[in-house]
Amino acid sequence: MEATKRLRRRGNDGGEVKTNDEASPEFSDFPPEIITEILLRLPAKSIGRFRCVSKQFCSLSSDLRFVKRHTERNAGNRKLLVSSRNLYTVELDSIGEGIRVLAAVELNYPLKDEPGYLAEKIRNYARERGGLELNLNLQLLRRNRVEIIGSSNGLVCIYPEKGGAFLFNPTTGESKKVPESLSYKGEPYGFGFDTLSDDYKVVKFVATSDNKGYHNADVYSLQRDSWRRIDGLRYKPVYSTLGVRLNGAIHWVVKLEKGQSQKRVVVAAFDLKTEKFRDIQLPDDAGDYKYLQVANLKGHLCLVFCDLGKQVVIWVMNEYGVERSWSKIQLDMFYSSMTPLWSSTKNDEEVLLELEGNLVLYNFESKTRWNLKINCDIRSTFMANTYVESLISPNSYGNNGIEI
């Protein structure tokens, strides 16, 4: 209300005169296209704050065409989303400028104040024993785990420990609960944007009754706000359960059931447009499939091989979908887990990696690395993903037509 009052000016007689659409007098004479160009150059968070300035700003920042243009313009301005006892957002621009401790901002996310399973079990244990007082800081056990399924265009699919999946915009704080799928069973998830139908989709594998394979998958459509079943799969789980979005598809490393192919392990790619799966053959020397993980390395599909006591090996698919284009990179590292998170825009050879619960900036050319820290309470095991700031709302989704 105060913001609106400040936008009113006084006439020559001292009386109050309202500008058009309650707009600020400084902007009242500006052509709408000039105001649009100015706002397009501002961060999404700033534009969100300007919504209360005037009806004109509020209407413009909610317009789907404006949201699309703003997201496209700011596609390179990515942030790091970290999950560890909480959700944090971290600026990536400072990496590579000599800063080794990264500033983190705590986020408010769906079901943040719901106690985790461990805290609930401890409370129940205390109740069963007549209100036994435990010398524990239960606050540290709350919000114990939030899984990051994936991100696209500023929307992030998260899975709090209790409560199911949500589509969440870390910039605006808006969220939408994803309804329960056709089946409660299933572990591997994926999330992405379908440019053909302008739709966000969540993919969930459905486990067989004996939990030894996946014969079905459920696909959630944000436009329809419902799930549909895909039959005819013959996969078995291998290692990582989270899919990697790249080139309009979501990818997992899976094992084929007997009799389907001589090569039992493949990359399963779910096409977000056709909603069909196809198999991508692994390189011939891909090693022990149990330790293979699919990832995105500088915009290329890659496979990461990690095994304790063995060197880290990466296979990069230089031309997407062309199996003969796999190339091998052997790193002078010995880790049991490694995930590429982000490629520097300032130095093409520098990549931010998660190495056994640590953040490391690695230079592929000089083979040098720098350890990074985050100034928040993170455990040795954490999840991280990147996202772009945007104004896209999961609750009023429309025709965006972009993929970032």
Features:
15% helix; SCF_F-box_component; F-box-assoc_dom_typ3; 2 domains; five-stranded mixed sheet; F-box domain-containing protein; mainly beta; F-box-like_dom_sf; Neuraminidase
Describe the structure.
This protein is mainly β. It has helices at residues 2-6, 25-28, 32-40, 44-50, 55-62, 64-73, 117-128, 138-141; strands spanning 9-10, 16-17, 78-83, 87-91, 101-102, 104-106, 146-152, 155-160, 166-168, 175-177, 189-194, 199-207, 214-221, 226-237, 244-246, 249-256, 265-271, 276-281, 292-297, 300-305, 313-317, 326-330, 338-343, 350-355, 358-363, 368-374, 383-388. The chain folds into 2 domains: 2-62, no CATH class; 78-388, Kelch-type beta propeller (Neuraminidase). Strands 11, 12, 13, 14, 15, 16, 17 and 18 form an 8-stranded antiparallel β-sheet that branches. Strands 5-26-25-24-23 form a 5-stranded mixed β-sheet, with no helix packed on it. The chain has a 4-stranded antiparallel β-sheet with strand order 6-4-3-27, with no helix packed on it. Strand 9 (166-168) and strand 10 (175-177) form a beta hairpin. The radius of gyration is 24 Å and the shape is globular.
What is the CATH architecture term of the largest domain?
Answer: 6 Propeller
Could you tell me the radius of gyration in angstroms?
A: 24 Å
The CATH topology of the largest domain turns out to be Neuraminidase
How many helices?
8
The residue-averaged pLDDT reads: 81
* Number of individual domains: 2
Helical amount: 10-25%
Number of strands: 27
- The CATH class of the largest domain turns out to be Mainly Beta
Termini Cα gap = 37 Å
In terms of structural class, how would the helical and strand content be classed?
mainly beta
Main sheet, how many strands, which sense, barrel?
Answer: 8 strands, antiparallel
CATH superfamily heading of the largest domain = Kelch-type beta propeller
Q: Note poorly predicted spans.
A: 1-23
Strand content: 35-45%
Overall spatial form? globular
